Amino acid sequence: MNILSPEITALAYLVAAICFILALKGLSSPQSARRGNLIGAAGAVLAVVTVFLSMELDNILLIVAAILVGSAVAVPIARRVQMTQMPQLVALFNGVGGGAAALVAVLELGHNEDVWVRIAIVFTMLVGAVSFAGSAVTVLKLQELITTRPILFPGLPVAMGVALLASLAACALVVITGSWTWAIALLLLGLVAGVLLVLPVGGADVPIVISLLNAFTGLAVAASGVVLGNVLLLVAGTLVGASGTILTQAMAKAMGRSVSGIMFGAFRGGSTAGSTAVSDRPVRSSSAEDVAVQLGYAQRVVIVPGYGLAVAQGQHTIAELASALEERGVDVTFGIHPVAGRMPGHMNVLLAEANVPYELLKELDEVNAEFAHTDVVLVVGANDVVNPAAKTSAGSPIYGMPILEVGQAGQVVFLKRSMRPGFAGIENELLYDPKTALLFGDAKASLTQVLGAVKAL
Amino acid sequence: MDAVTLLTVVVLAVFVGFEVVSKVTSKLHTPLMSGANAIHGIILIGAIIVAGQTNDPLLLTVALIAVVLATANLVGGFVVTDRMLEMFRGRRKPTSAATAPVSPEGDVK
């Protein structure tokens, strides 16, 4: 239908773009975040209604049916997914978005002779295809359907170089000839490049790839806005590109590494592979009752959760422990490392799911200022993010990573499965410190025992 | 639309994007990722336009696949972000200022 004038259409798209900006702006605080997201969703609905009302479109029934199919597939997945599987889901949705952008660009090829528009088309195709294939590999790694270790084979760097050069050549040919054959070749090369890009990235670094691919898809969508002359696509895509870039950098900083080091570090060897040897140096092992006494009679306790907590499904137990301690008048907060979990901010989501009020979740800088006045730090399922080697041992793979400086607190209690070093395979000197006590066992089982003992105090 | 106008829009959008996102609290980085992810699902608009302008069966099929994928991205992204943000609750009794510690952002209203 052609009901809306071009002016009204442009205004409606402007309103939708503002809604998207407000959606991101809302995330500056947990209180405004949900409303912001709903405003963003309203903007998306407005934009979709506008496109139907402003253009002469054929196949409307089929399009509506396709929208219903897409929603019917995505909504149940989005409703049911476990919070621990959030990285996979974000990667999945990112991949399909990139794929959609690439397909839209291919179909626009027939309508456009202009060189600049064709450049935007090949950009969208290539980046969208890389994002689609890269995200697919990411999902496989995160679901552990393929190995999470870096996958390397001889000649991989050469293969990547060839794929990249061939892609650029195909881009040039599509721009010059506008041929469908070359367009399909370009899409296939983009898929190959996407797979090759993500294969050498290790499991723990995969989240940074999700963030990077998210930025890629944003840029592809922005370029499709140029192709279709649609300002909303341009603005929305650019916003996502900017946010993905910032997040990627923030995350690399939180890991103390560079983005290129994470993407291509495996080629240089010695990336995330470390020793798994178990040390036999003496440590002070503790009992649940002793830990309960330490915590229950403290004034200030900081809990440092790591992904081991989520693996053991101990979020709810730790939330209960925190409220049991609060009832005893203990001041309890959670110190969250930015990369605790499988994606940035993941641990906050996992604890929020367990009904921990967000006021108790403290960021790195905030909580580091508090450790000096803290009586007991309880470290659960975390190791590398509290390892002082990141500050002191220049040769260590985690050197330079900002850590939670729990060593400044009066006492430290580690809940650990065993003395096996953490993911990075580096010994943690803090474990051998006289003020450190260790309670061995499954995180959830240990927490349940400590909780029972605290209640019995 | 002419190139200079497009460039103007892009440059301003980059600045708005960096400005807004750098103010996002790191507590909400996961919802930020999934929310930004939902926003690029707006490629659905593009998919609808190409599907509405072709009658070639092959091209239409490809366009409809793009519509399905883009919808999954857009709708799924907003739904899962909402689900996450719903879980971020403050103290059970936000009215009693005595028990609610003032958060460092000073966002306790």
Reconstruct the topology from this structure.
The complex is a heterodimer of chains A (457) and B (109).
Chain A: H1 6-26, H2 30-54, H3 60-80, H4 86-108, H5 115-142, H6 156-177, H7 180-198, H8 206-228, H9 231-254, H10 259-268, H11 288-296, E1 300-305, H12 307-311, H13 315-327, E2 331-335, H14 346-353, E3 361-362, H15 364-368, E4 376-380, H16 389-392, E5 411-416, E6 436-440, H17 443-456
Parallel strand pairs in A: 1-2, 1-4, 2-3, 4-5, 5-6
Helix pairs in contact in A: 1-2, 1-9, 4-5, 4-8, 5-6, 5-7, 5-8, 6-7, 8-9, 11-17, 13-17
Chain B: H1 3-22, H2 29-39, H3 43-52, H4 57-87
Helix pairs in contact in B: 2-4, 3-4
Shape of chain A: globular
Spatially, the strands of the biggest sheet of chain A line up as 3-2-1-4-5-6
Cα(first) to Cα(last) distance of chain A is: 72 Å
Number of domains of chain A: 3
How large is the share of residues in beta strands of chain B? under 5%
Return Rg of chain B in Å: 20 Å
Number of strands of chain A: 6
Compute the number of helices of chain A: 17
Cα(first) to Cα(last) distance of chain B is 44 Å
Q: Report mean pLDDT of chain B, rounded to a whole number.
A: 85
Beta-strand fraction estimate of chain A: 5-15%
Task: Summarize this entry quickly.
Chain A is an alpha/beta fold and 457 residues long. Chain A has helices at 6-26, 30-54, 60-80, 86-108, 115-142, 156-177, 180-198, 206-228, 231-254, 259-268, 288-296, 307-311, 315-327, 346-353, 364-368, 389-392, 443-456; strands at 300-305, 331-335, 361-362, 376-380, 411-416, 436-440.
